[in-house]
Specification:
Metallo-beta-lactamase, Chain A; about 240 residues; about 25% strand; 9 helices; alpha/beta; globular; six-stranded mixed β-sheet
């Protein structure tokens, strides 16, 4: 059985846990090392017992605590070659493990598949985890759903994806300059609520049992808006 737990999501810091049997993986380390430890321990996970940390990309809200956390706990870090090259100095070289940007490997008792996503980072990826016939898709920080993304997520049983903004709220936002709003809504930015809903449909609502929406903007979205957009296509709550 695969278990999934979000520790943090959004511009304040992204991190999540994937558990299979006795193995636990951390996806991204965008909270401080201290906050990562506190939140892990709150859900019964010992930080030093992690099998590894998988990175989606190098942006600060995904790697803020990476250096201090790995220094304290000696956990191996799995990342694509280009992401590793950008972040190399944050982590002791012996702790790195390079993974493909588009490929499959076995780790922590699960099959892990990576696939490229369109975002303004050097080599961003999404993941599909498989164990016991169950497939979990994890994808965040992408400006649009490519055919590749739709294909890789087709038929997953559970899906974590971003629903970053409501277009009307983003257009009215006065805290961000026009250039930032254009970046967010661009093809290498983030998914809107409606785009997230469309990706859920592409993943296949017939088999999909759970959808978790993340990376919601505090200023340009509301949980009710994001949930309503997706509920409208899956026919439930």
């Amino acid at each position: 059985m695969i278990e999934f737990c979000v520790l943090g999501s959004g511009s304040g810091g992204n991190a999540a846990l994937v558990r299979c049997g006795g193995e636990v993986l951390l996806i991204d380390a965008g909270l401080s090392a201290r906050e990562l430890r506190v939140r892990m321990e709150a859900v019964g996970v010992e930080p030093g017992g992690l099998s590894g940390i998988l990175l989606t990309h190098e942006h600060g809200d995904h790697v803020k605590g990476l250096g201090n956390f790995t220094k304290a706990h000696g956990v191996p870090v799995l990342a694509t070659a280009m992401t590793r090259a950008v972040l190399g100095e944050l982590v002791d070289g012996g702790k790195w493990r390079t993974i493909p940007c588009g490929g499959k490997f076995e780790f922590a008792g699960m099959g892990v598949e990576t696939f490229a996503v369109p975002h303004d980072a050097v080599e961003p990826v999404g993941y599909v985890f498989t164990a016991g016939g169950v497939r979990l898709g994890v994808v965040s920080d992408l400006g649009h759903a490519t055919r590749l993304v739709e294909t890789r997520l087709a038929g997953v049983d559970a899906l974590f994806l971003e629903a970053n903004y409501d277009p009307d709220l983003l257009a009215k936002d006065t805290k961000r300059p026009w250039s930032t709003r254009q970046r967010i809504a661009g093809r290498h930015g983030h998914l809107s609520n409606q785009q997230a809903a469309e990706l859920v449909v592409a993943a296949g609502v017939g088999r999909l049992q759970r959808v978790v929406l993340g990376h919601l903007s505090r200023d340009c979205n509301h949980p009710e808006l994001a949930a309503a957009a997706v509920a409208g296509v899956v026919g439930g709550e």
